[in-house]
C-alpha cells in the first residue's frame, strides 16, 4: 500500500510540474533563511561547551569601586590580583585559579626576519591550563607555563610560524608597545583549537618575564577565572565569596585611609561575585547580548518561513478541484479517509524533503557571501561535533510537513463523493475564503517588509549624515602611550597640523568618571583626558570661549571645557564660571564644544568634562594613551611615509599600526548596516515569494474560470469589463492587506526606532509608496494571466459542452 501511495504521489507531482516547482522553490527559500538563522543561533549557544570540565569554571567579577555612578551598580569583568590568593586560602571549594590579560596587538620576531604585528597574545598565570582543559598536541599542560618566559601557541599559529614540525624548543621574540627591546620566549607547547567557540581565546599565551608589585598603593587588574571542586550552588559560592571579600576590602580601605561612606550612602557596599563561564558570552556586562541583537532577525526569518508555508498550503488547496474526482472515486470504491490523509501527507512530505535538500544546496552556495556580509564564520558541515544541526533539520522537516500538509490533507480528504461525482464541486466556493485569507496574510507580511526597509534605510541615512561634532577626515589614531618627545618629532613633519592625545575616542571607550560640584550640587560626570591639542586635532565645533592652548600654563592646572549637554544641564552661560573638582579644587570653564558622537546612536551623549590637568577628578594621571594626528589631506602620502620613518627609528622592533578616525566612526554603524542588509534580503525574498504565489494562484484560478469568461464574452462582455472583474478581488485583497499591515508595522518599526537616542520621526511617505507599489504590482501580476484568458476564443472553451 505504501509503495502504491508513493507511486501516486510521484505521478501527481509530475503531472503538476509548474505548481510543484513553485511549491518546492518557495519552501526552499523560506527554509534556507530559517536554517541560516538556526546555524547562527547554534553557533552562539555553543560558546564554552567544548569540554564538560568548563561547567566548573567561573569568572570573578568586582563591583566597580572607582566610580559609584551615583548609586548605579556596574560590575567589572576584571579583578584585583590580590583576590586570587585570598580566596584560594579562604575558600575550600576552590580547586584552582587562573588569571590573564589581553594586551592587544604586539610585535613578533622570528629569527632574523622583520617584525610583524600579531593579534591574540595573552599573558597568563601558570595555572591557566589547570582551569581551561585545552587539548595539547605538543608539550604537556602541567609544565607548559611553569616558568616566566614560556609561551604556548595554537596549532594554526605553529603551522604558520614553523611549518609542520614540532615547535617545542623554538624561540619567539615578543615586543610590548613602546618597549625598545623585545623579550625572548621559549615555545613549550601547542594546543588545538576547541571544537566550539570559546570566550577565552588566544593565539599565543605566555608567562610574563617582568613581574608587577602588589601592595596597598598599587592596583593590578586581570581577568580571573576560578575552578570549583565538585558540585556547588551559585548562591552558596557567592555568599562565601562575599564574606571573604568584604572583610578584605574593609581592611584594605582602612590601610589606604579611604572611607566606604560613598558606597554606604548610595546603598552599595564593596562586592564580588562568581559568574558561570557559560553565561559570560550569553549575558555580557557591556553592550547587548547576541540574543537581543538577533531577535529581529529570528522574527524576519520566521515571517519568511511562514510566507513559504502559506504559499504551499494555498497552492495545494487551490488544486482541490482537480483532485476532487480522484478523492470521490476512491471513496466510492472503499478507500478510508485515513488512507487518503496519509496519501496527501506523503505528497507533502516528498515536496518538503525536496525543498529541504534544495535549501541546503542554496545555503551552502550563498553561505560564503552571507558570512562576508554579516561578518560571521558559519559552516553547514555535519560531523560528530554538530550532529545537533542534523537533528534540528529532521525536526524542522517534520514541523514543515505538519504545518504545510495537515490542513490540505484533511481538506482534500473531506470531499463528499455524491457532490463531487454530480459535478457540483467545481462550482463550490469551498476553500476560497481560506485562500483569500492566506494570500492576504502573505501580503500583510510583504507590505510590512517593504515599509520596514524604507524606514530603516532612512534611519541609517540619518545616522550616516548626522554631524558627529568633529571633523573625522584626514585624522589617524595610533593606539599607544603618548610620548612628548616623539610627538614633537611628528609635529615637525610638513603637513602635520596637530598631534594630540584624547582618551575619549571611539575605539578606546574608557568611560572615566569624576566628581564635580557646581551650585552646591555634587555629581559624577563623564570625564575625558586630553592634552593641549587633543581637541584641535579632531577639529571640534567650538560654540563659545576657547580651546586648550599649549602655551597657557593655567590650562594644565585649573581649567576645563564642557560639552553642550553639560552646559545645558548646568543652566547655560557657563563661560568664566568655576566648577569644583572632587568638590574642592576650583576649575574655570574656558570653552563649550558641540557634543561629540564617539559611541553608538543607541545611547545619548553624556554630559562631559574635558581636562588637560594631571590632577583631575578621575584619579588617573593624564599622561596620554594615544596619538591623534591631524594632517593636510593634500600631503597624506608624504605625511604617512614620514610618520612611519620616525616610528621605525624610535621603535625598530614594533611596527607602526594606526586607524583612520573616519573608519572608526563608520564601525559604529556596522551592526545596523548588517541589519539593514538582512532586512533587504528578507524583504526581497518575501515579496518575491508573495508575487510568485499570487502569479501561480491567479493562473490556476483564472484557468478554473475559463468557461465562465467564455460565456460572458458570448453574452457581450468586453475586455475592459472582464479585466476589471478578474482583478477587483485581488485589488480589494491588497487594500485590506495594507490596512491590516500599517498599524502592525508602525508598532514594530517605532519599537525599533525607540532603541536609538538619535532617530528620525516616523515618516508617512513609506506607507504611501508601499500602498501604490503593492496595488500596481498586484494588478500587473494578475493581468499577465488575465490577458491570456480574456483574449482566448470562446469556442475553444465551450466546444465540448
Any overview of this molecule?
This protein has 801 residues and is of the alpha+beta class. The chain folds into three domains: 53-282, no CATH class; 447-465 and 667-801, no CATH class; 480-657, no CATH class. 49% of the residues lie in helices and 16% in strands. It has 24 helices and 25 strands. The strands form three sheets. Strands 1, 2, 3, 4, 5, 6, 7, 8, 9, 10, 11, 12, 13 and 14 form a 14-stranded mixed sheet that branches. A six-stranded mixed β-barrel has the order 17-18-23-20-22-21. Helix 1 packs across helix 11, helix 3 packs across helix 6 and helix 22 runs antiparallel to helix 23. The model has no long low-confidence stretch (mean pLDDT 83).
Distance between the termini: 38 Å
Count of β-strands: 25
Radius of gyration, taken over Cα atoms and rounded to an integer in Å = 34 Å
- Helical amount: 40-55%
Q: Beta-strand level of the residues, as a percent range? A: 15-25%
Chain-averaged pLDDT: 83
Uncertain parts: none
| Number of separate domains | 3
| Apparent shape | globular
The profile of the biggest β sheet is: 14 strands, mixed
- Tally of contiguous helical segments: 24
Membrane topology: Multi-pass membrane protein
Domain MacB-like periplasmic core: 20-241, 444-617
Pfam family, one: FtsX
Domain ABC3 transporter permease C-terminal: 299-414, 681-793
Amino acid at each position: 500500500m505504501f509503495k502504491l501511495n508513493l507511486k501516486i504521489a510521484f505521478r501527481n507531482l509530475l503531472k503538476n510540474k509548474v505548481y510543484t516547482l513553485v511549491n518546492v522553490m518557495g519552501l526552499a527559500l523560506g527554509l534556507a533563511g530559517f536554517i541560516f538563522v538556526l546555524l547562527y543561533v547554534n553557533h552562539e549557544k555553543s560558546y564554552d561547551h567544548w569540554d564538560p570540565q568548563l561547567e566548573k569554571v567561573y569568572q570573578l567579577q568586582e563591583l566597580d569601586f572607582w566610580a559609584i555612578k551615583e548609586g548605579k551598580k556596574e560590575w567589572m569583568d576584571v579583578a584585583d590580583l590580590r583576590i586570587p590568593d585570598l580566596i584560594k586560602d579562604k575558600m575550600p571549594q576552590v580547586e584552582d585559579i587562573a588569571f590573564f590579560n589581553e594586551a592587544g596587538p604586539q610585535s613578533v620576531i622570528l629569527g632574523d626576519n622583520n617584525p610583524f604585528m600579531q593579534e591574540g597574545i595573552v599573558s597568563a598565570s601558570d595555572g591557566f591550563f589547570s582551569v581551561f582543559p585545552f587539548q595539547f598536541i605538543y608539550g604537556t599542560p602541567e609544565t607548559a607555563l611553569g616558568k616566566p618566559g614560556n609561551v604556548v601557541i595554537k596549532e594554526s599559529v605553529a603551522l604558520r610560524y614553523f611549518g609542520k614540525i614540532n615547535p617545542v624548543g623554538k624561540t619567539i621574540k615578543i615586543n610590548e608597545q613602546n618597549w625598545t627591546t623585545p623579550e625572548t620566549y621559549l615555545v613549550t607547547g601547542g594546543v588545538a583549537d576547541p571544537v566550539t567557540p570559546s570566550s577565552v581565546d588566544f593565539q599565543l599565551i605566555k608567562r610574563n618575564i617582568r613581574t608587577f608589585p602588589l601592595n596597598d598603593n598599587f592596583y593590578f587588574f586581570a581577568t580571573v577565572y576560578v575552578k570549583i571542586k565538585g558540585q556547588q550552588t551559585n548562591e552558596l559560592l557567592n555568599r562565601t565569596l562575599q564574606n571573604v571579600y568584604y572583610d578584605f576590602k574593609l581592611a584594605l580601605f582602612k590601610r589606604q585611609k579611604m572611607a566606604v561612606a560613598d558606597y554606604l550612602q548610595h546603598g552599595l557596599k564593596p562586592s564580588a561575585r562568581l559568574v558561570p563561564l557559560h553565561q559570560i558570552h550569553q549575558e555580557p556586562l557591556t553592550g547587548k547580548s547576541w540574543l537581543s541583537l538577533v531577535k529581529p532577525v529570528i522574527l524576519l526569518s520566521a515571517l519568511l518561513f511562514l510566507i513559504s508555508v502559506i504559499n504551499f498550503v494555498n497552492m495545494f488547496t487551490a488544486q482541490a478541484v482537480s483532485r476532487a474526482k480522484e478523492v470521490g472515486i476512491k471513496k466510492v470504491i472503499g478507500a478510508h479517509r485515513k488512507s487518503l490523509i496519509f496519501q496527501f501527507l506523503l505528497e507533502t512530505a516528498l515536496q518538503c524533503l525536496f525543498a529541504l535538500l534544495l535549501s541546503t544546496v542554496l545555503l551552502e552556495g550563498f553561505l560564503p557571501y552571507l558570512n562576508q556580509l554579516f561578518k560571521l564564520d558559519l559552516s553547514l558541515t555535519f560531523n560528530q561535533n554538530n550532529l545537533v544541526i542534523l537533528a534540528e533539520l529532521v525536526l524542522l522537516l517534520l514541523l514543515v510537513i505538519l504545518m504545510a500538509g495537515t490542513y490540505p490533507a484533511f481538506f482534500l480528504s473531506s470531499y463528499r463523493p455524491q457532490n463531487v461525482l454530480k459535478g457540483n464541486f467545481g462550482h463550490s466556493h469551498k476553500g476560497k475564503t481560506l485562500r483569500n485569507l492566506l494570500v492576504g496574510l502573505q501580503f500583510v507580511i510583504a507590505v510590512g517588509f517593504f515599509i520596514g526597509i524604507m524606514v530603516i534605510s532612512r534611519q541609517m541615512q540619518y545616522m550616516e549624515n548626522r554631524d558627529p561634532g568633529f571633523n573625522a577626515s584626514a585624522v589617524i589614531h595610533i593606539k599607544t602611550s603618548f610620548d612628548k618627545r616623539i610627538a614633537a618629532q611628528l609635529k615637525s613633519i610638513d603637513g602635520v597640523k596637530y598631534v594630540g592625545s584624547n582618551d575619549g575616542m571611539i575605539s578606546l571607550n574608557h568611560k572615566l568618571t569624576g566628581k564635580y560640584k557646581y551650585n552646591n550640587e555634587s555629581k559624577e560626570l563623564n570625564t575625558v583626558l586630553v592634552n593641549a591639542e587633543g581637541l584641535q586635532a579632531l577639529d571640534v565645533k567650538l560654540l563659545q570661549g576657547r580651546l586648550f592652548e599649549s602655551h597657557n600654563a593655567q590650562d594644565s592646572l585649573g581649567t576645563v571645557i564642557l560639552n553642550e549637554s553639560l552646559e545645558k544641564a548646568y543652566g547655560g552661560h557657563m563661560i568664566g564660571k568655576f566648577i569644583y573638582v572632587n568638590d574642592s579644587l576650583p576649575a574655570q570653564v574656558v570653552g563649550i564644544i558641540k557634543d561629540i558622537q564617539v559611541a553608538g546612536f543607541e545611547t545619548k551623549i553624556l554630559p562631559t568634562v574635558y581636562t588637560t590637568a594631571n590632577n583631575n577628578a578621575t584619579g588617573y594621571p593624564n599622561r596620554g594613551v594615544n596619538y591623534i594626528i591631524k594632517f593636510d589631506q593634500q600631503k597624506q602620502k608624504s605625511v604617512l611615509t614620514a610618520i612611519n620613518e620616525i616610528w621605525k627609528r624610535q621603535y625598530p622592533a614594533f611596527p607602526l599600526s594606526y586607524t583612520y578616525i573616519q573608519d572608526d566612526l563608520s564601525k559604529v554603524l556596522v551592526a545596523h548596516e548588517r541589519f539593514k542588509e538582512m532586512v533587504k534580503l528578507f524583504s526581497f525574498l518575501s515579496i518575491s515569494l508573495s508575487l510568485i504565489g499570487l502569479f501561480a494562484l491567479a493562473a490556476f484560478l483564472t484557468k478554473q474560470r475559463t468557461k465562465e469568461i467564455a460565456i460572458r464574452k458570448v453574452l457581450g462582455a468586453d475586455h475592459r469589463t472582464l479585466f476589471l472583474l478578474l482583478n477587483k478581488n485581488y485589488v480589494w485583497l491588497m487594500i485590506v492587506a495594507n490596512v491590516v499591515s500599517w498599524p502592525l508595522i508602525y508598532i514594530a518599526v517605532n519599537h525599533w526606532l525607540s532603541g536609538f537616542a538619535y532617530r528620525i520621526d516616523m515618516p508617512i511617505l513609506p506607507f504611501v509608496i508601499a500602498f501604490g507599489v503593492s496595488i500596481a504590482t498586484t494588478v500587473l501580476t494578475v493581468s499577465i494571466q488575465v490577458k491570456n484568458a480574456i483574449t482566448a476564443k470562446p469556442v475553444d472553451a465551450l466546444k465540448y459542452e
